[in-house]
Design brief:
The complex is a heterodimer of chains A (47) and B (633).
Chain A (H helix, E strand, L loop, with lengths): L2 H30 L15
Chain B lengths: L10 E6 L5 H9 L16 E6 L5 E6 L11 H10 L11 E7 L3 H12 L5 E6 L1 H6 L3 E2 L1 H8 L3 E3 L9 H17 L15 H18 E2 L7 H9 L4 H19 L2 H21 L4 H18 L2 H17 L1 H15 L7 H6 L4 H7 L6 H10 L9 H11 L4 E2 L4 E2 H26 L21 H35 L16 H13 L6 H7 L8 H13 L5 H12 L2 H13 L4 H11 L3 H29 L2
Parallel strand pairs in B: 1-3, 1-4, 4-5, 5-7
Antiparallel strand pairs in B: 2-3, 6-8, 9-10
Classes of the chains: A mainly alpha (47), B alpha/beta (633).
């Protein structure tokens, strides 16, 4: 397997891991919040 | 050697009437950049920050939603009451309170001060906006006021450099005194009980007495705001001016953003050319050009339009005009059964439905609040702007109409925003006459004085918006585009394949699986693929289309190639159908999540998802069928 394939596989795996991490963190934040707080999805720039 | 954990920093809470400048003060003290605007109800939750006082003490400061009394009537006011009275779970009672008062409107603000005094806790009164009070010709004797109230009084101008220095010094003195005497064991609720009518009359009399002692009003009242309001609040002229302003805003979104968009497009094309020229053909080159540049680039290109839109919104917010717009539209909102306070949450939803839905906390009545939340996603959020713009640029000719005064693309964009608003009003009308039936409550709102927007605040607001957009593009959208590229590239075409490789990819299979459901509304399998990750954020759909069509073709210029490819691949009825779909589609997990939390129910987000998806499908189906009948497939 050439360098291009290895680098591509790393970038794809890293990106998939990043999405998984963000979903996990978002779910954890939402569970831990009491009143107030938006869950911090950063969608609006104010989270 | 033993290490002693340092004691927690003393906590002070910023409490005051709505729109008296608490968050501006919070930002000035902590260096934070929380959103401020010239209308009531911007802050609907507690926010905390740390600062080091002039004497070197670390102090935690809590910014709270505005309230006129601790008798909380709406969910945002309940947050303030609960923090101040120590009823908030996992929240220590603040040791001291800084009561922030709008110096130009002390009569209203001092009632809250008198109520807070009953808590028997250290209180400092910050007379904010002292510069405006002086401009209006008012004289406030801070020493006299302090003596009459029995608490320290400090003039502040939160928006000026050094305008909070006196307050910081006073906080130091208050903390020192409290530490010397020992912070009183705070049982916050002692001394406070909900004031009754008799108490309120007493407060009123006391406020009048104190005002007479310490405030000299100008001999000639400040008339500028009143004069401007006679025009801007006129039932006919006011509405005409509001519509003209909104119309100009959408025209500017297209015309002002054109040049920077072309520059970004040119830059992306250059980078794509460099990658193509310097890398050997292979998966990494395809990932960079078809996945990252085509996918992320087709989203980033819309940054100038989003900034132009927010430039207008920020200027209108800072000037004090937004509260007038709420007043003007109260009759229209009331006609469909919405509370007048619904205007601000709905307005916030044009940026993003998430803060919009949270802003509905200012509405006291639960049925009114639910109705507002249910229609918030129908207001066109900024994430829909790239979708609309892409399709309009591809299918709507760049032509002037109405005697050359108006560009056709801007007119179509205005119509799409108007369609969202109109649908929201119709849905609210139906909800309020069926499952959310209830009496209409009158709108009581304090109209802020007009102010010239501060360039620094506008620039900071735009900077924060651009930063958030680019951060998302560089993180979440980038990661999604890489995954989409992978799904659209593998497992690759089998031997003897007759179709392009993407047809045999995982994304192609998902698209073909969903296609039969979406075919009646004119969507092809590529659109079906784009709608699924569009659930994370609507603008991702544009990136996915960019990647999918880049893998199917190659063009010289990113934007023109994607627009051109769409124009060549889709019929006009399909494009119109997708626009109609996006006016209604609830394609945003974050929105559904915040509805669940705000209403503490799984039922309402489920209802929202089903009814908005149904509406989207119905609108797209009708649009497609009518367009096919009129224009031909």
């Amino acid at each position: 397997m050439g360098h291009q394939h290895i680098l591509t596989a790393l970038i794809v795996a890293g990106s998939a891991g990043w999405i998984g991490f963000r979903v996990w963190r978002w779910a954890r934040k939402r569970r831990s919040k009491t009143a107030g707080g938006c869950g911090g999805c950063s969608k609006c720039g104010e989270g | 050697m033993t290490h002693h954990k340092p004691p927690p920093p003393p906590r002070i809470a910023l409490v005051g009437n709505p729109n008296c400048g608490k968050t501006a003060l919070f930002n000035a003290m902590t260096g934070a950049r929380q959103k401020v605007a010239n209308y009531a109800g911007v802050t609907v939750e507690r926010k905390e920050g740390l600062f080091v006082s002039p004497a070197g003490t670390r102090v935690k400061v809590i910014d709270l939603p505005g309230t006129y009394s601790l008798r909380a009537r709406s969910p945002d006011e309940e947050v303030t009451r609960d923090v101040v009275l120590g009823r908030m779970e996992d929240e220590e009672v603040p040791e001291a309170i800084v009561c922030v008062a709008d110096a130009t409107n002390l009569r209203l603000n001092l009632r809250l001060v008198l109520e807070l005094k009953k808590l028997d806790r250290p209180i400092i009164l910050a007379l904010n906006m002292m510069d405006e009070a002086e401009k209006q010709g008012m004289t406030i004797d801070a020493a006299e006021l302090s003596a009459a109230l029995g608490i320290p009084v400090v003039p502040t101008v939160a928006i000026q450099t050094g305008g909070v220095q006196a307050l910081l010094d006073q906080i130091d003195r208050t903390i020192q005194v409290a530490e010397t005497e020992g912070f009183a064991p705070v049982h916050a609720q002692c001394g406070w009980s909900e004031p009754n009518a008799h108490d309120l009359r007493d407060y009123h009399r006391e406020v009048e007495r104190i005002i007479a002692l310490s405030v000299t009003s100008p001999t000639r009242p400040h008339l500028a705001t009143h004069r401007i309001d006679t025009v801007l609040l006129h039932p006919a002229a006011g509405l005409a001016i509001l519509l003209t302003l909104l119309f100009l805003m959408f025209q500017a979104v297209f015309t002002w953003a054109r040049l920077p968009m072309e520059l970004i497009d040119g830059g992306l094309t250059l980078v794509k050319g460099l990658v193509d020229a310097n890398m050997a053909d292979g998966p990494l080159r395809s990932l960079l050009t078809d996945g990252v540049i085509a996918g992320v680039g087709s989203v980033v290109i819309f940054l100038p339009q989003i900034l132009v839109l927010f430039l207008f919104i920020q200027i209108l917010e800072d000037s004090g005009y937004m509260a007038r717009a709420a007043f003007l539209l109260d009759r229209l909102m009331g006609g469909v059964g919405l509370h007048g306070r619904a205007f601000i949450p709905l307005l916030s939803s044009f940026a993003c439905a998430v803060p919009g839905i949270m802003a509905a906390r200012t509405i006291e009545n639960r049925a009114d609040r639910i109705a507002t939340i249910m229609i918030a996603p129908l207001m066109t959020c900024s994430a829909r702007l790239p979708v609309y713009t892409l399709i309009i640029a591809a299918f709507v000719p760049q032509r002037d109409v109405l005697g050359g005064w108006v560009g056709l693309p801007g007119l179509v964009m205005f119509a799409l925003y108007a369609a969202g608003i109109l649908s929201g009003l119709i849905v609210a009308f139906v909800l309020k006459r069926t499952i959310l039936h209830g009496a209409r409550e009158p709108l009581l709102m304090q109209l802020p004085a007009y102010r010239l927007p501060r360039p620094r605040n506008v620039a900071l607001g735009l900077f924060e918006r651009a930063k958030a957009f680019l951060t998302r593009a560089g993180t979440t959208i980038f990661a999604l585009m890489v995954v989409i590229w992978f799904l659209a590239s593998y497992p690759g075409a089998p031997e003897g394949a007759t179709e392009p490789a993407i047809h045999y990819s995982i994304a192609g299979m998902i698209g073909h699986f969903l296609e039969p459901v979406l075919a009646p509304i004119g969507f092809n399998w590529q659109i079906a693929v784009a709608l699924v990750p569009g659930m994370a954020a609507r603008e991702v759909a544009v990136g996915v289309l960019g990647t999918i069509y880049a893998l199917s073709d190659s063009g010289d210029s990113l934007r023109s190639s994607l627009g051109g490819l769409l124009a060549a691949s889709w019929s006009l009825p399909t494009a119109l159908s997708l626009l109609a779909w996006y006016v209604f589609a609830p394609q945003c997990i974050a929105t559904l999540g915040v509805v669940r939390r705000e209403l503490n129910s799984l039922v309402w987000p489920a209802v929202m998802f089903v009814f908005l998806t149904g509406l989207a499908y119905l609108a797209a189906f009708t649009t497609y069928r009518v367009a096919v009948a009129v224009l031909g497939g």
